[in-house]
Design goal:
The longest helix has 38 residues. About 9% of the residues have low confidence. It is built from eight helices and seven strands. A hairpin with an 8-residue loop joins strand 2 and strand 3. 45% of the residues lie in helices and 17% in strands. Bound molecules: flavin mononucleotide.
C-alpha cells in the first residue's frame, strides 16, 4: 500500500519536472537568440548619399556580375550606401528603397566583414529604422561561408559579403502559401538595388544563390526562423 502511494506521488512529480525543464530550456534558447542581435555593439553608419553622378540608364548599361576582387578595403560609407539601397527607409511611413508585398518586410540583411575600413571582422545585422548595424558574432567567417557555398572562392576573397535572409512568416501570415513567392520576389528587388548601387559606386558584386542553406545559417548564427536566400560578395 505504501509503495503504491509512493508511486502515485512520484509519477506526477516526474512529469512536472520534465515539463519544467523543457520550458526553462526553451525560454533560455529564445532569450539567447534575441541576445545574439542585442548583445553586440552598435555601428552607427554614415548618412547615405541621395545623389550620384551616374544616371540610372548608365548604371543599367554597365552593371555586370564580377567575381574578381582587388585586396583594397571597402569604406564604411560604401557599406552604408549599399545597405541603404538594400532596405533603407525612404519616407515618413517607414517605406523602403525596395517594394514589399503588403509592406510586410520579410527580409533581414547581414554583412560578414573581413576587410572594411573602421570595422572589426565579424557578422553584423542591419537595422533599417535606425540605419545602424549590430554585431552578431566576431571574427572572419569568409572561409566557412565559401565552404557553405560550394567552395566559390570569390566569397572568401571579397572584403565583405552581404547576406539576405527571410522570415517567411511575416508575409505568409497575410498571404498564406503565396506569400513565399512574394518573399522570393522581394529578395530579387533588394538584390537588384544592391547591384545597381554598387555599380554607381564603382564596386564589384555578384549575386550567389548556390549554397547549403543550413550551413550558411549556422556560419552566420542566424535565428532558426530565418532562411538565407542570397549571398552577395562585394569588393573593388
Ligand atoms: C538567382 C541567381 C543566382 C545566382 N547564383 C550564382 C552563383 O551561385 N554563383 C555565381 O557565380 N553567380 C551566380 N549568379 C550570377 C549569374 O551567374 C549572372 O547574373 C549571370 O551570369 C548574368 O551575368 P550578369 O549578372 O553579369 O548580367 C546568380 C544570379 C542569380 C539571378
Amino acid at each position: 500500500m505504501d509503495e503504491e502511494k509512493y508511486i502515485k506521488f512520484l509519477i506526477p512529480l516526474v512529469f512536472i519536472s520534465i515539463v519544467f525543464i523543457g520550458i526553462t530550456v526553451s525560454l533560455q534558447e529564445g532569450e539567447n537568440q534575441n541576445k545574439t542581435h542585442l548583445a553586440g555593439h552598435e555601428v552607427i553608419l554614415p548618412d547615405p548619399q541621395k545623389e550620384g553622378s551616374l544616371s540610372l540608364e548608365e548604371t543599367l548599361m554597365s552593371r555586370r556580375s564580377v567575381r574578381d576582387f582587388a585586396e583594397n578595403k571597402v569604406t564604411l560609407e560604401e557599406v552604408s550606401q549599399l545597405l541603404w539601397a538594400a532596405q533603407g527607409i525612404t519616407d515618413e511611413n517607414r517605406k523602403r528603397t525596395a517594394p514589399s508585398a503588403g509592406a510586410t518586410y520579410p527580409l533581414e540583411v547581414y554583412i560578414a566583414v573581413k576587410n572594411v575600413e573602421g570595422m572589426e571582422e565579424g557578422v553584423y545585422l542591419y537595422h533599417p529604422q535606425r540605419h545602424i548595424l549590430t554585431k552578431v558574432s566576431s571574427g572572419d567567417v569568409s572561409a566557412k561561408l565559401k565552404e557553405a557555398a560550394l567552395g566559390q572562392t570569390f566569397i572568401e576573397e571579397a572584403p565583405f559579403n552581404i547576406i539576405i535572409s527571410a522570415i517567411y512568416k511575416r508575409t505568409t501570415d497575410t498571404y498564406g502559401e503565396r506569400g513565399e513567392r512574394y518573399v522570393h520576389m522581394e529578395a530579387g528587388h533588394v538584390s537588384q538595388n544592391i547591384y545597381l548601387q554598387g555599380e554607381a559606386l564603382g564596386l564589384k558584386i555578384v549575386a550567389v544563390g548556390a549554397f547549403n542553406d543550413k550551413q550558411v545559417a549556422s556560419v552566420l548564427n542566424i535565428p532558426r526562423n530565418e532562411e538565407p536566400l542570397y549571398i552577395m560578395p562585394v569588393g573593388k
